[in-house]
Amino acid sequence: MTARGRVTLGVLLDSLGAEVVRALALPRGRELLVGTPVIYDPEEPMTGLDGAVLLVAGRPSAEVLARAGEAGVAVVIVKPGTCDPEPLAEAARAAGTALLAAASDLSWGQLYTIIDALLAVVAPAENLGDAWAADLFALANQVAIRVGGAVAIEDLAMRVLAYSTVEDQPIDDLRREGILGRRVPAHPTNTEEYAAVLRAEDAVWSYEPREFYPRLAIAIRAHGEALGTIWAVQAEEPLTPDAADVLAEAARAAAPHLARINLAADEARRRRDECLDRLLRGIGPVRELATSFGLLPDEPVTVVTVGPHARPADAFAATHTGDLLRTAYAAYRMRAAAGAVDGRAYAIVATDSAAPLLRRITADTLARVADRLGGRWRAGIGRTVPSVASAPTSARQAEEALRALCGPFADAEVGHHEELSAALFLMDVDTSMRARPSLYGEPLRPVAEHDGRHGTDYVRSLRVWLAAHYDVPKAAELLSLHPNTLRYRLRRIGELIDLDDPDIRLVLALQLRLSGATNPAG
To answer: Between 458-467 and 502-515, two packed helices, what is the crossing angle to 10 degrees?
Structure first.
């Protein structure tokens, strides 16, 4: 392995995250270069392992660590449940080998795949030829030199994976913010501009936003599937005449890298969603799972769930929404475990449900989801529970709140469980009454039948009068009637049903609310 095919131990730890691995011993620090993952086989000699990441299944021992150190192994990864970590950490320090503990529910095959794919940013891609660099940053620099403009390589989520650093090539504020935030800044023109690039087979020009430099962009594809994009900035000087051809070559060179990066992201996301599902259901090692997401096991948390208003659950949309929730909460330093479970986005957030910031961040995320995916979206917020162990209770409440927001008795985009109690009650009553004839029976039926026979407007008058809390002048104004005219109607309705009976009024109000009174007689 060459240095080009390695990453630092710090990059490996930060990329995998605490939910995948945690450090037990780092005798040579975070700047140590590490390379290819290898699953340890006790029957095989430890040769050719210089800089390797050794995955040790079974029961590791101090002897294995000593041999690994002699063989030049950079990192040994073990499972904490199979050994006492303290003696192993001492042995690792003596051997000069980093020791990491992997999550107990992560298979060795999954861990191998994730580490191998993370090397895609710096590991050589096969069959690219000598003309192109072996890592994405070097590739961006080579393209920038050849086309005469600053270059960025992005994935489909508009994350900046790599960018050029060629001197004297100007960039604008849009590119500068993208580099600093490692993500393209939000702008109303983003959706259409990126869609145009992904629709085109060749490089296309993008002139939006108008206040920034124009860009020449091309989609990165593998086997017809879009993986990302490459963007070249045209500043004061025009790009070279062959810039479109250069970008096409670069897109082919970048495709293997992005394919491996996507594989790593998919695997890490799948595992993260599985851990989130277990927390939401309250199964497994709750404290360990909470810690893996950066949550304190005994701190109060609130569950948020997001779903579409009037269409079936969608796995892709839920995954994208979960990513947006995670990014949004992190931007405000709110610790959260976010992801997609059963076609919905969920987040377990370390804050109180009444916090105005929680509602605002969630509402802003809904707007971004609608902008990117279309449609109407709603978010239910459960009540705050004392610890992560009680997250299933808050999750059920968040789901109930979302159900209410997607039903006919609430019209907000974001709602707390406690403020939606009336809507939930009406939905339950509606469900129990929907198939029963009493929903359209007395006392509403004779009034509706009278309207049908005589062309009167008694049902609508009743609905407005009840909604106005029996205030005749107010209801008359809403109906564009004189108050005496409404009083006369109410007396006539009183000949059909007893409007002085409080129970009649209650049932009548429920019938009108549940049925909509569109045509109850039919």
So the answer is: 110
Give φ, ψ of 154 to 5 degrees.
Answer: -130, 155
Read off the pLDDT of residues 484-501 as tens digits, 9 standing for 90 and up.
998 988 898 888 888 888
CA distances from 224 to 125, 129, 200, 252, 504 (A): 19, 21, 12, 12, 66
CB contact burial 383-394 (16+ within 10 A = b; e otherwise): bbbebbbbbbeb
CA gap 223, 244 in Å, rounded: 20
DSSP per-residue string spanning 359-419: HHHHHHHHHHHHHHH-S-EEEEE---BSSGGGHHHHHHHHHHHHHHHTSTT---SEEEGGG
CA 203 vs CA 40, 83, 166, 197: distances in Å: 46, 55, 22, 7
Q: What is the 3-state secondary structure (H, E, C) of 296-327?
A: CCCCCEEEEEEEECCCCCCHHHHHHHHHHHHH
**CB contact set of 130 (below 8 Å; sequence gap of 6+):** none
Give the per-residue pLDDT at 118: 64
Query: What is the CATH class of 3-120?
Result: alpha beta
Give the whole-angstrom CA distance, residue 136 versus residue 120: 9
Judging by DSSP bridges, how do beta strands 302-308 and 377-381 pair with one another? antiparallel
Superfamily of domain 136-261: GAF domain (3.30.450.40)
Are 438 and 507 in contact by the 8 Å Cβ rule? The answer is: no
Domain 436-515 belongs in CATH node 3.50.50.60: no
What's the rounded Cα separation, in Å, for the pair 516 and 506?
15
Instruction: Give the length of the chain.
Output: 522
Regions of the chain with pLDDT less than 50: 1-4, 121-134, 517-522
